[in-house]
Amino acid sequence: MALGVGIIGLPNVGKSTLFNALLKRQAALAANYPFATIEPNVGVVPVPDERLEKLAEIVEKEIASPGLAMTKKVPRVPATVQFVDIAGLVKGASEGEGLGNKFLSHIREVSIIAHVVRSFEDENIIREGSVDIKSDYEMIQTELILKDLESLRSSKFKVQSSKSQLKVQSEVLNRLENELNSGIPVREMMFAKEEQELVDQMFLLSSKPEIVVLNVEEQALKNAKEIRQNYAKLLFSVTASEAKQSQKIASGSSKPRNDNIVVISARIEAELAELSEEDQKEYLKELGVEESGLERLIKKAYQELGLISFLTAGEKEVRAWTVKRGTNAQNAAGVIHTDFIKNFIKAEVVSYDEFVQLGGWKKVRELGKVRMEGRDYIMQEGDVVEFKIGR
């Protein structure tokens, strides 16, 4: 499945620096995986996954011919994330200021938004429309909410056949308008299943899951945990003006605000993009961090969207596949090829840890560690799978 992350924010907050770093990583991907088709404002980058290298090494040993020094190289194919650079929004974007209408429409096309907020000082970079972290964050939120209110006013929903459906529709529309006018984005509202289905059909901008990307100075990165906690309190604390929302949270009618913050230095990401994988690890170690900002951003996106990866390991390729948590084996097979859904027979499944510990398919089968699962089996993170498909 395609995972699209829309990068949004005010001008001059570091969006372009971050996106250009992604493009350099994309260039490396395109060199190895020609399926990556790139548009000017779209970057496709691999999801970091060290498991692929280990699986490929095991498969290569399994298929190696005795007595031959050369071993067939098995392709490693990671899952990918598509990042969309959405031009800097400005106050009034919901009314068409700047390139507001064009780029607000791009938000509808992504799975999740990464809202970049400036937390660095640089007198050479003008704060265009930027005041402080909280005000900058709230400005973008306001523009998304205003655009949603405009969408509600201009929408013409098909009249349902039953009075009960029409009543639900009217109640949902009224509630959306009231809570949006109170400054509450759709993603924080709670709906019953029937109501949520209606809301999903509206494709409202503030319903998109959100990650706040706090762009800090290079030297601040080692204090990322503390910074994240401090700014979570600043951005998501309940104030007097938010008392109404607080009451809704207590009653269960709204989702609680969370602290989905990823602390990065866009400048460091740009520097990492120029280095080899080995040098990247050494540089991160010097900085006192374990993972790059890109890795942490992708992990957070997976978490927020409820995604997992299952793995296939064969002579043709070793590959990571992305599915929604809760996907059954039959539908997971359909991610590989749609025909696999109707022709699904069973799935041979083993955990990644057992596959690696025992050294591949031959051994796990000999020791009876492979589970034969039917179409209703719920896929788990790190499952190594071989699907059996009929004709």
Describe the structure.
The chain is of the alpha/beta class and 391 residues long. Helices cover 43% and strands 18% of the residues. The strands form three sheets. It has a six-stranded mixed sheet with strand order 2-4-1-5-6-7, with helices on both faces. The protein has a three-stranded mixed sheet with strand order 3-9-8, sandwiched between helices. A three-stranded antiparallel sheet has the order 11-10-12. The protein is flat. The model is unreliable at 33-38 and 238-246 (pLDDT under 50).
Task: Name the helicity range.
Answer: 40-55%
Number of strands: 12
Helix-strand string: EHEHEEHEHHHEHHEHHHEEHHEHHEE
Secondary-structure-based class equals: alpha/beta
Give me the number of helical elements.
15
Note poorly predicted spans.
Answer: 33-38, 238-246
- The side-by-side strand order for the widest beta sheet comes to 2-4-1-5-6-7
Rg result: 24 Å
The biggest sheet amounts to: 6 strands, mixed
How far the N terminus sits from the C terminus, by CA atoms, comes to 24 Å
Q: Beta-strand percentage?
A: 15-25%
Q: Which descriptor suits the 3D outline?
A: flat
Mean pLDDT: 83
